[in-house]
Amino acid sequence: MKILVALKRVVDYQVRVQVKPDGSGVAIDGVKMSINPFDEIALEEALRIRDAGKAEEVIAVTIGPQQAMQQLDSGLAMGANRGILVKTDKAIQPLTAARVLAQLVEKEQPGLVLLGKQAIDDDCNQTPQMLAALLDRPQATFASKVEIDGQSATVTREVDAGLETLSVDLPAVISTDLRLNTPRFIKLPDIMKAKSKPREVIELDSLGVESGDHLSYTRYEPPAQRQKGEMVADVPALVAALQAKGLI
Amino acid sequence: MAELASKLLSRRDLEFMLYEWLQVEALIAAPRHADHSRETFDAALDTSERIASELFAPLYQRCDQDEPQLQGDRVKVADGLKSALQAFAEAGFVAATKDYELGGMQLPTVVSHAGMAYFYAANISAAAYPLLSMANANLLLAHGSPAQIDAFVRPELEGRYYGTMCLSEPQAGSSLSDISTRADFDAESPLGAQYRVSGNKMWISAGDHELSENIVHLVLAKIPDENGRLIPGVKGISLLLVPKFLLNADGSRGERNDVSVAGLNHKMGYRGTVNCLLSFGEGRYQPGGKAGAVGYLIGPKHGGLACMFHMMNEARIGVGLAASALGYTGYLHALDYARNRPQGRALDAAGKDPTSPQRPIIEHADIKRMLLAQKAYAEGALALNLYCAHLLDQAELSESAEERQGLTLLLDILTPIAKSWPSQWCLAGNDLAIQVHGGYGYTRDYKVEQFYRDNRLNAIHEGTHGIQGLDLLGRKVTMAKGAALKLYAERVSATIARAETTPATSEHAAALSSALHRLLAVTQSLWSAGNPQLSLANASVYLEAFGHLTVAWIWLDQLCAIGAAQGDYYAGKRAAADYYYRYELPRIGPQLDLLEALDRTTLEMRDEWF
Q1: Chain A: nearest CA to B4, how far in angstroms?
Q2: Which of B12, B35, B90 sits opposite A195 (nearest CB)?
Q3: What is the tens place of the pLDDT at every residue in B15-72?
Q4: B390 Cβ neighbours under 8 A, 6+ residues apart
Q5: 3-state percent helix, strand, coil for chain B, nearest multiple of 5
Q6: Is the peptide bond before A171 cis (omega within 30 degrees of 0)?
Q7: Beta strand A26-27 with A33-35: parallel, antiparallel or unpaired?
Q8: Total of domains in chain A
Q9: What value does the CA radius of gyration of chain B take, rounded to a whole number of Å?
Q10: What is the pTM of this model?
Q11: Which of A43, B17, B195, B369 could form a disulfide with B183 if both were Cys (CB 3.0 to 4.6 A apart)?
Q12: Residue A96 lies in a domain
């Protein structure tokens, strides 16, 4: 079985981004970029499944500019067998990403697609669901535990009510949540080993994917500054204060 | 103002030093580094930064608060330290610069040091364990037999064994000729000539713990002559490898050797690093049913000190780098605080309005002075240490024996400065970081007081400030008929020549040129006195002046690399260099005056007058 994992290049989670003064976006010039943390968890899970002998190959895919090769390099150094960069300088929206991934799935025929549940830049949380729909295959989102048993996978999902366990037939799309695993650190010798792993570059335009850009961004602004809190003496005072604000 | 991406080090600055200034990508031309590229260097730095931030930094204060405890004959260290150090080793950092065949990455030393700086900045007392192990392994690679390397170095590079260096004794610290630990011949063994070692060793960092399967002690001891007498002076010193546990024939861990902790030292800082008095051959254990700790001779009999200095010189550069990293992280913490702490108003008309909001303290000139000083110290110190690491790479790769000798001489003369200058001035930087924080900086709620306490050790261990001064003035400037000093002066002069031709740097070039000529003249007159005691009386002052001049050179050389580049980053570099040339370099004038006058104040002072 092959496992396909998608890695998105995003601003590193430790960077506190600033909105551009004209509100046209977020300033990312010279800012540290990394693999989206949820995608890193997806890759880690894929590597563990492979290393447990339940898959033969892990393919890491990224869609983005040439610089996204850095994230692909990181994925290969973590342990993916080969990498594919679908190259474009355009910002990619979830539906386009799902369409590109669907084409790659057609080509590679993986038994499992593992994706991060969302990317920390736009927080869309849409690509995995759209991809499953486009492929007409089962999906299990927000996975906190994945077990592969032959032709199906048992997935524990994090839902509002707690944990839900379901079984999906393979091939399937699984999206990963934060508590699924702790990704490994890259080892120095593996950086060197990764150099000889195959990397394929495909121009996005050559895929003939229909643009899924149905979202338009009007303006960016930072969240409102948190107001100073006040301490109240007891519960009745709290209730009164909330009532005064019209909150209850 | 931009949020700091990291309060450990500035990645932008590291990249400037490595790629724009030292141009380390040129090392890729050497067959040893042919598989590398900027991408692999960056990836190594990424993984350093990540493990340092995620595993080392969160333990920083815990390592300080939960200092090592002796429980029976076992030493307990802070929780979490073992797994952080394991992750460090598993990621391949101990072996980073080593051959692929040894599990290494063949990473250039300069890139490895840049990566290590993250660990020193994140948690110096945790990083001291691998610092010692790496230097220990390097000594054995240079002086050990193939069997000794297989038995001890391989597990060290895998992070299974840790190493120490055992020089000082309770009665003999800096004065190694007075050590009394002895080693008596026992038998030949597959691991070399086997001796029985007995004596006490003081100030042994990483001397005992359960962080690793075994501990490889490198011990200076005296082997008696044929009459059974210990040879006086440093000529009688030999180097022995004394493992905590002996090895079985198959290399697995065997019986306990007779090495035990006699007591822990309770330190001001660096508390996560166990430091202890070790007893060898005291009789607690009887390895092989006989008295004495089993040790294997490393290198030639009575030639131990020269071997040990292989490790000592590396440790000195490591200490300088650690001091630089502590200065650097202290500076970034102060910078972050100054940008976010509103206090007071401007001293202009607008500031007179008491209802106007308070301004961040970074807007006050005196705060900027303190930040500039820290920036000048930390970036200057880090640059100097990376420069030295780059010399090591160049020396190792050089195909010409003459060139290699020159690079080694240059490194020899720079080593006391690379060790001492950051230990003195990055500590001064940490002092200013506390000052910028005001009262908060004096509390344990902020890390800056711990940076200060930790950094205070660096001017003491691996050769005190005074020892470094004697080494520089007493040995390094005169060795090989002054060849090292001549090479140093040529390098500084080459930078001056480059800087003279550009209006933006010509003023600094002139200042450095006159300081260099003065230093050379003073060196000459010091040694013309014909009285070594007088010449060396103010060796520490000489070390400080030489160090301040050296960092002025390093700053000017960086300015040459910047050229006319524009932007905030480069403007900051220029401002820090200006600060250094206006506030710091002039300090050496009075020091050189004192030296030139062959001042006798200290020599003539008498014990009874105090």
Answers
A1: 8
A2: B35
A3: 999 999 999 999 999 999 999 999 999 999 999 999 999 999 999 999 999 999 999 8
A4: B22, B24, B108, B109, B110
A5: 60, 15, 25
A6: yes
A7: unpaired
A8: 1
A9: 25
A10: 0.93
A11: B195
A12: yes
**Beta strand ranges found along B346-499 (DSSP E):** none
What DSSP assignment string belongs to A28-57? -TT--EEE-HHHHHHHHHHHHHHHTTS-SE
Question: Is the interface score ipTM higher than 0.85?
Answer: yes
What is the full DSSP assignment across B17-69?
IIIIIS-GGGGGGSGGGTT--HHHHHHHHHHHHHHIIIIIGGGHHHHHHS--E
Cite the beta strand spans of A45-138 per DSSP E. Answer: 57-64, 82-87, 112-116
Domain extent for B544? 464-601
Separation in Å, CA B520 to CA B154, B479, B517, B527: 46, 15, 5, 11
Q: Pick the closest to residue B207 from B219, B223, B221, B196 (CA basis).
A: B219
Residues 6+ apart with CB under 8 A from A71: A7, A8, A9, A33, A34, A35, A62, A64
What the block records as the tokens of B532 is: 């070594």
Joined tokens for residue A91: 């910002």
Instruction: State how many domains chain B has.
Output: 3
Contact (CB<8Å) B103/A15: no
* Domain C-terminal end among B250, B274, B301: B301
CATH value at residue A154: 3.40.50.620
Question: Where do we find the tokens 């598993």?
Answer: B90
8 Å CB contact of A189 and B2: no
Decide if B359 is inside a domain: no
Same domain, B578 and B475: yes
DSSP result, B181-206: -EEEEEEEETTEEEEEEEEEEEEEET
Q: What angle do CA B372, B377, B379 make, to 5 degrees?
A: 90
Contacts of A30 in chain B (CB under 8 A): 12
Calpha distance B200→B194 (Å, rounded): 19
Give Cβ neighbours of residue B411 (< 8 Å, ≥ 6 apart): B388, B391, B392, B395
Q: Are B151 and B161 in contact (CB under 8 A)?
A: no
Q: Does residue B595 form part of some domain? A: yes
Q: Which of A134, A121, A127, A109 lies closest to A55, judged by CA?
A: A109
Q: What is the radius of gyration, based on Cα positions, of chain A? A: 21
**Residues of chain B where predicted confidence (pLDDT) is lower than 70:** 1-3
What chain B residue is nearest to A77 in terms of C-alpha separation?
Answer: B43
